[in-house]
């Protein structure tokens, strides 16, 4: 046997081992074994093998799809409440809606019902109101893996659905990729910015979303690359949107809309003091308590350029203050053991331009 034939035989053996060591659904196991049998037959008959790389890539993908593994869900509502309060200030009505939603899921799980048949939560609000971070916290409260699919600007339904293997550059869609990355069949998957898909692809993408979100259809989601029905009924989907104008009626029917309120100035001051400033200061490498901000200065920090319904501007302003302090520290213009106090007299030197 020449070197090329030996390498080919070794590659086929690796593929067979990979299939045997993975718990695949019987139909998919039979399909992949048939692919390898065809290659072996072609080699015995002296023919060439031109699609081995394509088959190897396909087997690599399907053997990573978590058809069986799952995460044990947290069934303690008190832990869920603590996690939400730890990561988010205010939003009382939103937290109550989420806890009610979790209560229903918990009761169904305790009854042995693993499939998620409740409407999908969709957090709707302006930029910076905490939609994405709240989704991450929801995954944390349930003890599940978290994955995010950004839909903003998506212009090709194949990014979700995958592309048929008849094309040379075929690959699975984002749904399958996120399942593989999570490694379990029951992660929390965030469908972010549902309303911002491109106009050209909106109808097709909304059609796929209906299949994803409908409990009667998502038990057999068909990715065109995998070409085998995948059960998504245990995935907990969450959606976000700035508004519902561009979301199709059929998709809206499958969503439970939760409006994210704008933050008041008083809430922003608490969020800035207790949540953002400690985190950003640490991330900038600043020594603990090197900056002290007078209470009279916070109104200038939360509104440097006018009103903002969310906290993005506040976050950027605090980042600017911390970075300017970090520069002064590195340049030796302030000492590590000296507290820098920001007052109404010097705050303008630290606010971003």
Structural notes for this entry:
The chain is α/β, with parallel strands linked by helices and 353 residues long. It folds into three domains: 3-62, no CATH class; 77-259, 3-Layer(aba) Sandwich (Rossmann fold); 265-349, Orthogonal Bundle (Helicase, Ruva Protein, domain 3), CATH 1.10.8. The chain has helices at 3-20, 26-44, 52-62, 77-87, 92-110, 131-142, 158-161, 174-182, 202-213, 249-252, 265-283, 298-302, 312-330, and strands at 120-124, 146-150, 188-192, 221-222, 229-230, 236-241, 255-259, 291-293, 340-342. A five-stranded parallel sheet has the order 2-3-6-1-7, sandwiched between helices. A two-stranded antiparallel ribbon has the order 4-5. A two-stranded parallel ribbon has the order 8-9. A hairpin with a 6-residue loop joins strand 4 (221-222) and strand 5. The protein is elongated. 30% of the residues are buried. The model has no long low-confidence stretch (mean pLDDT 87). GO terms for molecular function: ATP binding; ATP hydrolysis activity; ATP-dependent peptidase activity; serine-type endopeptidase activity. It holds the Pfam family Lon_lid. Keywords: Hydrolase, Protease. This is Lon protease.
Q: How many E-type strands?
A: 9
Number of helices, counting only DSSP H or I runs of 4 residues or more: 13
CATH fold annotation of the largest domain: Rossmann fold
CATH class of the largest domain: Alpha Beta
Q: End-to-end distance, in Å?
A: 72 Å
Radius of gyration: 26 Å
Domain AAA+ ATPase: 117-265
Keywords: Hydrolase, Protease
Pfam families: AAA (PF00004), Lon_lid (PF22667)
Protein name: Lon protease
